[in-house]
Automatic annotation (TrEMBL):
<protein>
    <recommendedName>
        <fullName>7-carboxy-7-deazaguanine synthase</fullName>
        <ecNumber>4.3.99.3</ecNumber>
    </recommendedName>
</protein>
<comment type="subunit">
    <text>Homodimer.</text>
</comment>
<dbReference type="InterPro" id="IPR027621">
    <property type="entry name" value="rSAM_QueE_gams"/>
</dbReference>
<feature type="binding site">
    <location>
        <position position="85"/>
    </location>
    <ligand>
        <name>substrate</name>
    </ligand>
</feature>
<feature type="binding site">
    <location>
        <position position="42"/>
    </location>
    <ligand>
        <name>substrate</name>
    </ligand>
</feature>
<keyword id="KW-0004">4Fe-4S</keyword>
<dbReference type="GO" id="GO:0008616">
    <property type="term" value="P:tRNA queuosine(34) biosynthetic process"/>
</dbReference>
<dbReference type="InterPro" id="IPR013785">
    <property type="entry name" value="Aldolase_TIM"/>
</dbReference>
<keyword id="KW-0479">Metal-binding</keyword>
<dbReference type="InterPro" id="IPR024924">
    <property type="entry name" value="7-CO-7-deazaguanine_synth-like"/>
</dbReference>
<comment type="similarity">
    <text>Belongs to the radical SAM superfamily. 7-carboxy-7-deazaguanine synthase family.</text>
</comment>
<feature type="binding site">
    <location>
        <position position="50"/>
    </location>
    <ligand>
        <name>[4Fe-4S] cluster</name>
    </ligand>
</feature>
<feature type="binding site">
    <location>
        <begin position="27"/>
        <end position="29"/>
    </location>
    <ligand>
        <name>substrate</name>
    </ligand>
</feature>
<feature type="binding site">
    <location>
        <position position="55"/>
    </location>
    <ligand>
        <name>Mg(2+)</name>
    </ligand>
</feature>
<comment type="function">
    <text>Catalyzes the complex heterocyclic radical-mediated conversion of 6-carboxy-5,6,7,8-tetrahydropterin (CPH4) to 7-carboxy-7-deazaguanine (CDG), a step common to the biosynthetic pathways of all 7-deazapurine-containing compounds.</text>
</comment>
<keyword id="KW-0456">Lyase</keyword>
<dbReference type="GO" id="GO:0000287">
    <property type="term" value="F:magnesium ion binding"/>
</dbReference>
Amino acid sequence: MNDAARPSEIVQSPLERLKITEIFLSLQGEANAVGWPTVFVRLTGCPLRCQYCDTAYAFHGGQWREIDDIVAEVARQGVRHVCVTGGEPLSQKRCLSLLQKLCDAGFDVSLETSGAIDIAGVDPRVSRVVDLKTPGSKEMARNRLENIPLLTARDQVKFVLCGRGDYEWAREMVAEHRLAERCDVLFSPSKSELDPRDLADWIVADRLPVRFQMQLHKLLWNDEPGR
């Protein structure tokens, strides 16, 4: 026989699949793309358990979807902006392939990640929104500080603040790591834990080089899934 592999010897590569909780069209509610019609691709699973999490329904369940099918569904929505979120999307390794294929297809892609997983492999065309966990989140120990030197002007760092202690911790992090010189820095009040007016007053009083934000989708639709 020739050197060609016998049929039984041909190794079939596994389909590139991800477990998906939901794909939906809405308005981006936060970060620097706020207000844009955006397709959200919510991956299933997260290794963290932040005490204020509003997407715990994405911890389990979901459906396996081929990555090419996901990209095709995003394209059918007819908008330019795509946000890959979770859960923690990077807890599924093939998320990196999805991000690359979305960029290759010409979409403006953002990634919402907890910052507990290495972001080095993320396609450089993606805007990475890294959520640094505060003491009030109960998951501060999971912060991967090695991600900070990887941040570029395309990226954003988000702090969800539960009170004055979280604010002071975040203020020190911004100064210590010179975060505002690396990328946009976002401060958000945790819903029902911190009065937004208090946070706004603190930022103004300290003249912090950060952007105050509230989640637009919660103002419009509260915590309704898929909005």
